[in-house]
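Hey, can you fold this?
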Amino acid sequence: MTSDKTARMKELAELLDKASKAYYSQDRELMSNYEYDALYDELVSLEEETGIVMAGSPTQKVGYEAAESLVKEAHETPALSLDKTKEVSALAAFLGDQEGILSWKLDGLTIVTTYENGMLQKAVTRGNGEIGEVVTANARTFQNLPLTIPFTGKLVLRGEAVIKYSDFERINQELPDTDAKYKNPRNLCSGSVRVLDPSVTAARSVNYVVFSLVSVQTDNPQEAPDFLNSNEQKFLWLQSLGFEVVPYQMVTSETVQEAVESYSRRILTYDIPSDGLVLLMDDIAYGESLGRTAKFPRNAIAFKWQDEIAETTLTEVEWSPSRTGLINPVAVFEPVELEGTTVTRASLHNLSIIEGLRLGIGDTITVYKANMIIPQIAENLTGRNDLPVPKTCPACQGPTAIRDENGVRTLICPNPECPAKKIKLFVDFVSRNAMNIDGISEETLVKFIDRGFIREFSDIYRLERYQEEIKALAGFGEKSYDNLIASVNASRNTQCWRLVNALGITGIGQANARVICRYFQNDLAKLCNADTEELMQIDGIGQVLAEEITQYFADPEHQRELEELLKELTFTDQSREEPRQTLQGLTFVITGSLEHYENRDALKAEIESLGGKVAGSVSSKTSYLINNDILSGSSKNQKAKQLGIPIITEEEYRRMIPE
């Protein structure tokens, strides 16, 4: 019997080690937090029951050794993790008759910072608790981390590098590639701090929140702090030096339950990711007298939220192709109420997760919100283990393949022409300066491509074939569908240059598209049949661009796609007389706010339609700087004055153009 338990302990250790390595060193997830905690607790229980602790057991290690990409350094004081509980009664028992500090357990990347002579000297990640990675240059870009402090001794702190939910949403939206988007703020933060280029960290709005004063040394008696044997006094002193410390609340065994309930209500709107609470003894001497185990200090304990778990039925697994070729599975289940919201979906991440859960349609599953926010499947109670894995890609219908990397199995589409891999082309096609189809976001395009509604540009104008399917999609309905179709139909009457810009020809943007169409008098057939020599006669079109254009229109597949697209469109500018080129040879720069034009793009479009050019910065080639605030001290105004370039208002510009 003992041999069976020993074998299980070895199995658990191997599973936890793999998951820990992926999480701490590779920013990947092999299993949910719920599953990891359950396996870890099982291992602890077996070790206590058998009295056997294997060398290298995850219960004796703090984390996984840092990645090789950054310089490593040993910590002066080991950065230990904390013992944990999910029972409020255990917190009360832990305190006894002592007073404690209850604070958020922040979910980011732990960083140890060292100050000497009033200046930040180094920042090192927690790593495996003994050895971390030096990220000093990156830490200097943290938004709220003091680089100098009014203390000249040596100060060592531990804190959490975090990215707020509000910043996480903004950064993810700004990432152009759907597959570059991060699953959660913790992964984004870890990836942002552990990079070699500090400019990347600087752009990610990383904050640093201190949760522990490790050590303080000074030869100057006048600046030596007196903490009055209180950890709260440490927090207050650190605040006086300019550090942001973790929000906390003083508690006793009688008040800790009420405090936990207060935190549990606030986490739903708290902007910084948190995966629980930390309870620290306020009495420094008493806490130190408790000592430590091989892994945990005994003066503090972590509280993890008692996950609200609901039982439901798995109704579908959606397979979502992406531009990297990964086909991502998402579980769809009967609606359940969790943490005050209705939940119907949860990411399954990869095939390994699906296989571990032994999923099948109709299975009874339990779901929860990790950190009370992110939906996850906790357990499969029936285990049909018969979920079919798609043999063909939903987007292109080509054969799929299974890839195994580092023990993680994923489903991929190997077809290089899969429309899911060309999502940026479709995003550009519907954009304001192309076909200007309002209301079709990248997220909507991804949904339509995933389901095979869109495979080429012309399919956007034939979405009515999928009327019922679109109305049934999450986030859609009768009104949304009607608005979508109205926007599509409104774009059917367009201008030649918009279509040329929308096709995604390498090197051709809005300005070039306008110039080219003007040259061919908006006759698309002439453009399609033009050779390289003729195209090179157009102002601003060199040999490289000319060859890109001819190669594009010579491609039989492009010809077929364009022919289908032209069946859906009408050009409004083919029969119109071209405006006089009154601005030919003039180059403008636009800055400041506008009064007569919707935006700068609108003014730029008018200038280009009249033969002029618009540049982004003032140079000796600039003819006029348009700025309604002529007296502004802006850098563009200063440069224009330095070069003797006229600064004109909108009104002055409008007097230059024909009525």
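Oh, and this one too while you're at it.
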Amino acid sequence: MTVLVWQDYAVILTYLAGMLVFGAYLARRKQNDEEYFLGGRRMPWLAVGVSVIASLLSSLTYLSEPGEVWNSGATHMAGKMLAIPFEIVIVWLFCVPFMMRFRFTSAYEYLEHRFNLATRRLGAALFVAMVVLWMGFVVLASSRALAELSRTPLWLVIAAVGVVATIYTTLGGLRAVIWTDVVQVALLVGGGLFAIGYVAYATGSFLPEWIGATRAHLAANQQAERIPWFSLDPTMRVTVVTVALNMTVWHVCTHTANQMTVQRYYSTRDMRAARRSFLTGALLGAGLNIMLMVVGMAMVFFYFGQGLSPDGGLDPLNRQERDLIFPAFAVARLTPGLGGAILAALLAAAVSSIDSGINSIATVVSREVHRREGAARASAANHVLEARVITLAAGSFITVAAYQLSYLPTEWGIVDAMPRTFNAITGPLGGLFLMGMFLPFVRGRAAFVATITGLGVAVVLGYWKQIGEQFVAWGWLETAPRALSFTLVMPTAVLAVFATAAVLSIIDTAPKRDLSGLTWYSRNRPAKNVELDGV
């Protein structure tokens, strides 16, 4: 594997040091809880929109999208693009307006008002577990790439990424997270566009030739039909329709039940600003995904189209190795220092997610500790020192957790692993919130059990093959089943939550609660003991 030179190291270290200095600068502002957790609810909608997509589009996407082109061409992206209109309509019309009605700091405060304290605790616990897995996976993926390219010990790279993100988030709170995210998106976009421009200039080619080379590569490796439009076979890895369904469910759940996203909308002035932030993030996210797909096609043309082998001996047919082709290209082919800039963009994609996860965990945990403080009292409270301690602890835990995720099955690439790890929680957690919004007949106990059931369904579907192999080892089955499509995990988990809750509600004898203002159908009625935002 081609290694970094000193100019590359200088660029990477300058980026990391710059993030620390920026965080320290933003920490000079006088802070209370509302300032530290929500930026004083005065953050500009454009910056918030950029920060939302920076949090959701991590280094996992920065690595996996160019790598996925080697496997499926543009058809995987076709599924994502097909989902965008549905995502925008649902989130714009339902999710953002509903959640922005409340003057909450933590999204999980809603669950106590809608159901009960136990359900709130369950939602908060699931969120923390999801973020630890998600951010640990982000740290591991980006650190593996940098460690292999630089021949630096993996533990050292993981520690550096985790420590930098943790320190500046601890210092500056959400304001530091949002503004550093803006810088990091600029790096991410710049890295992708520069790679596209370099290949176009160096080879005298552009998109038509790149598309042709991608199709030829798929045909040569008998992958031209790898992603059909639709199939009834649940073991088919992906189809365009199932990718679209999976992405729609993910976005709806993420913009309703994920504190990392909802907290940013709470940091804006009102619902109008929050909607603008969402639309900014949605459109920017679509553009970034398309850019990364084009980067992948450029890589296919540069190597396969010119009869070259990928640098470092990487195998495009290996799901883990193809995710490293883009950063390996940057180090091997670009001028010294520019390869380091691409890797800095990779780290920016990672850090922009990690800082959001750390800050959100600190926010949720702090609000759980001080849950008896109402919205008005919480806005004037000052638990910043305590929150900084929680932030440090969360960052340290995520950094350590990154090592444990290296034991995932080796045949999974990044795209396959995400729904089987942290996104196995996204579906049940999102289903819990959607159930609270749209199923007024569901009460606390039914909601609690239904969410646990959905989580169990997600785990079983995600690890169907591994469970079957264990049954074969025990002699319970003769042959192991084929792995089910990872795109089915989240949608099926949400359906399981809804179905279980509906059945249990028939036999739930718990007394009914006053749901004024707490469901979509009663949203226009004043909510008792809940401070609304007046929207």
